[in-house]
Amino acid sequence: MKLCVVGTGYVGLVSCACFADLGNEVIGVDVDREKIEKLKRGVLPIYEPGLKELVDRNLGKRLSFTTDLGQGVQDSDFIFIAVGTPQGPTGEADLTYVKQVAAGIGRHLNGPKIVVDKSTVPVGMGDLVASIIEEQGSGKHPVNVVSNPEFLREGSAVHDFMNPDRILIGTDHGTAAEKVRELYAPLEANTMITDLRSAEMIKYASNAFLATKITFINEIANLCERVNADVAKVAHGMGLDTRISPAFLAAGAGYGGSCFPKDVSALIQIADKEDYDFRLLKAVVAVNEFQKRSVVTRIKEVLGPLEGKQIALLGLAYKSNTDDMREAVALEVSRLLLDGGARVRAYDPAAMDNARRLLPEVKLAENAYAAAEGAHCLVVLTEWNEFKEMDLGRVKAGMRTPIIVDGRNIFDPNKVKALGFTYRGVGRR
């Protein structure tokens, strides 16, 4: 198969590398010339476990990169749209890039094509993409538009692509659906074929439900603190129920990242446009914002006034195994700490380059121990395994006051307290 993937972010680049590794000829297209030149040399713009190995194995053989959309379109049978749909000023999905790509595809058509939308887009966008392509291409060549949402988790995206829970294909053209199914045939995954609009809604509904599940356990955690229960035990007990499952029941400092915040907001906007008040999701957004701020509340409760205090932050990425800081809890916590007069030193195993750009007022340390040196309080914001395995005795010896606020509940409260720390988790006894 000959594929063109437009957009080389997390979704696009992982799709390029994985499809190439499955034996397809893949052209990755992006307007960022500097990024493309680096990709041609095997230099990746993102941190994602396993991705570098796939790119190196296929680059120059089945995988190539270009800024020339025309070349990508004309040399391919399938064109995947994998550009960003960032959150707009009022919460809606910004579809500028999707529309631009659709117009470019239409202008460069040289024969029948299947256009596969991997970008997360509002219901009805597939129809709009089809109309834009037809308008720009003057209807000279038949084009079928397919919705094929991605369900990749940053930090395990390569594994998720190669071992999917399901492949979702949405289109009103049966022949196109079967051809896209053939692309994924080597994965032997459960495939669901549905209409275009239902596929678009499934993507939003899935992410919104997971965000809701996280928010629910965070609310339970906040209540556990008030009734002297342990949310870790509560979540475990809930998760044993097969109707609930333990996934996404880890209480903490709130969710962030490139998907959940913007997709929840976009679904609220879709509902608003249809004159439906999606009250549940509005509450999810409000609770998540509260949960981020509550980290600083916990710090104040155990430390007192922030003025002049040295705070160590461990973890800046929104989750482990990624360098992505979009909507990360660390952004809000850092701002509130600095506004309160605290001095902040931070460390993250992968996100330091992004942190230099996004958190210029925060001092960055070379490792976790250096971040904790001289700190009045150590705050965990990302659940990196590296932090779980730290020598806490060494950490304590370097701190001014042995206080840990564990925003991801990575430590055993009893063990930490036995070492002489004052410990505050989220919903822990």
Commentary on this structure:
With 429 residues, the chain is α/β, with parallel strands linked by helices. It folds into two domains: 2-194, 3-Layer(aba) Sandwich (Rossmann fold); 210-424, Rossmann fold, CATH 3.40.50. The chain is built from 18 helices and 14 strands. It has helices at residues 10-21, 33-40, 51-58, 69-74, 96-108, 125-137, 157-162, 174-184, 196-227, 231-239, 260-273, 279-303, 329-339, 352-358, 368-372, 385-388, 392-398, 413-418; strands at residues 2-6, 25-29, 63-66, 78-81, 113-117, 143-147, 167-170, 191-194, 310-314, 343-347, 363-364, 377-380, 403-406, 422-424. The strands form three sheets. The protein has a six-stranded parallel beta sheet with strand order 3-2-1-4-5-6, sandwiched between helices. The protein has a six-stranded parallel beta sheet with strand order 11-10-9-12-13-14. Helix 1 packs across helix 3 (51-58) and helix 9 (196-227) packs across helix 11 (260-273). The longest helix has 32 residues, at 196-227. The model has no long low-confidence stretch (mean pLDDT 96).
Provide tags for this entry.
429 residues, six-stranded parallel sheet, alpha/beta, 46% helix, Rossmann fold, globular, 18 helices, 14% strand
